[in-house]
Write a structure and sequence with these properties.
The protein is mainly alpha-helical. The protein folds into 2 domains: 170 residues, no CATH class; 143 residues. Helices cover 77% and strands 0% of the residues. The chain contains 13 helices and no strands. Helix 3 crosses helix 4. The longest helix has 34 residues. It is globular. The N and C termini lie far apart (58 Å). The relative contact order is 0.07.
């Protein structure tokens, strides 16, 4: 036992040294640029930041560095999004009326950037589907259309990320005393959801070489875009409104993003579940397999649910801490809290059956698909049909 206790830290130290050794000059340059940007923000806007916002700023810088090291394309994505947003801030010049300028009106204002995000979701969907069809006909693993789908997916995520950052600034231009991070209503969190889902899919696409699955994921994202557009037109949800008292908390800034990493992962897993069902059917019939093998899809689906479960658990804990701060108790079995627990339990059982019982294949694929409806009701349905402490999130 003594020997084991001594060797375990040495093994962990070797892993850490190996990770550090694999970092190259661009990795360190990226880290330097991110922390340099954080220093700039702290120096220029520090007087407006309270202690919580300062902590979130530096934590965000650390997370950005880790993401850039872990997923290399983020080294370009994050700085480019920040630079585009900062360009928009400069074009505004402290006056919201400057939004009528050409670049802001058609490209860099929050609403313009978000509309570009919505458009490129459809572009990516068309390219992914066309590329998958072409790949199945010519029996080649990849083609220009699939690569275009990947490029369009990156553009959609970049436009949405930029739009959210600019919207944050616009909220302060409209109401200097009531500006807030843009995760306060259904419209804003759906834009965040689209960004997170696209980035998570792009990571799995790159890691497992599953471009043909892009049509499934972006098909669902196109449905979300349709809802966002309807919501904007019918409810004018794109207008920036002041925060209601229940949301005027720094807990919102960390609870909501963590929640939507979970939601994004669960939705990806549901679309992969549909793809796995198609793949299993083709394998059983011995026909031409136009999708990746079902075993590979199953593995990607498992990875997505595992990540989603981790972040949803973190978000649930943060939500309980927020509830204690706002209402004086950690848990009330409010309808929203109850359904959050149902979602958590659903995926906990799913992971248990796969990891402990060894389940694979059709049953878990269907389970992931049904899990999407459970998750959707927990997020949207509860707000529409039930009332409680979270009733401020209604449509």
């Amino acid at each position: 036992m003594t020997q084991h206790i001594k060797t375990l830290p040495e093994h962990e130290l070797l892993l850490e040294k190996s990770f550090i050794r694999n970092l190259n000059a661009p990795d360190w340059l990226f880290a330097l640029s991110v922390f340099g940007g954080a220093v700039f923000v702290q120096a220029r806007f520090g007087i407006r930041l309270d202690v919580y916002e300062t902590a979130i700023l530096w934590a965000s810088a650390g997370i950005a560095v880790f993401l850039g090291w872990f997923f290399k394309p983020m080294r370009g994505f994050i700085p480019l999004g920040v630079l585009l947003a900062y360009a928009a801030v400069g074009l505004y010049g402290g006056n919201i009326k400057s939004a009528d300028g050409f670049l802001l009106r058609y490209f860099l204002s929050s609403q313009s950037a978000i509309m570009w995000q919505c458009a490129f979701v459809f572009f990516a969907l068309f390219a992914y589907i066309s590329g998958a069809v072409l790949a199945s006909v010519k029996n080649v693993p990849g083609n220009t259309l699939l690569n275009m789908g990947t490029a369009f997916a990156w553009v959609s995520a970049l436009a949405g990320f930029t739009g959210l950052l600019v919207r944050w600034h616009e909220s302060y231009l409209l109401r200097p005393d009531a500006g807030h991070i843009p995760v306060s209503n259904l419209y804003e969190v759906f834009i965040l959801f689209l960004v997170i889902t696209a980035l998570m899919y792009l990571y799995y696409e790159r890691k497992f070489a599953v471009q043909k699955l892009g049509g499934f994921v972006f098909g669902f994202m196109a449905v979300v875009v349709g809802f966002v557009l309807w919501y904007s037109v019918s409810r004018e949800a794109h207008t920036i409104q002041p925060l209601i008292p229940a949301l005027q908390s720094w807990w919102m800034k960390i609870h909501v993003p963590a929640n939507f990493i979970g939601y994004g992962a669960f939705c990806i897993s549901a679309m992969l579940g549909i793809a796995e069902l198609f793949s299993l059917r083709a394998e059983e019939k011995g026909g031409k397999l136009w999708l990746p093998p079902s075993a590979l899809i199953d593995e990607v689906m498992y990875k997505a649910i595992a990540v989603g479960f981790l972040f949803f658990t973190i978000a649930t804990i943060l939500g309980a801490l927020w509830a204690a701060d706002a209402w004086g108790r950690y848990w009330s079995w409010d309808p929203k809290e109850t359904w959050a627990f149902i979602v958590w339990l659903n995926y906990a059982v799913w992971l248990h059956l796969r990891l402990v019982a060894g389940w694979r294949g059709r049953v878990l694929a269907w389970w992931a698909v049904i899990g999407l409806f459970v998750t959707a009701f927990a997020f949207v349905g509860v707000n529409m049909f039930l009332s409680g402490l979270h009733s401020y999130g209604t449509l």
